[in-house]
Amino acid sequence: MSSPTALIATATDDDPLEGLHAVAALRRLVEQLERTHVARARSTGWSWQEIALALGVSKQAVHRKHRQTR
To answer: Checking phi first, is residue 46 left (phi over 0); if not, alpha (psi -120 to 50) or beta?
Structure first.
């Protein structure tokens, strides 16, 4: 996988194929980071409401997406 900086540079490339591939890779990276930080927050006692507020989503949305995250 390329570095996030390289992916950002490629995401702004004039070539749509290269740009879209970079966007997909960045999306996967962001999802992985979100899972990691939700798991850390839960393991340190954060409520679903606190996590939802930090992410700017509803409590229901974050719980539905990450309820199996440990």
So the answer is: beta
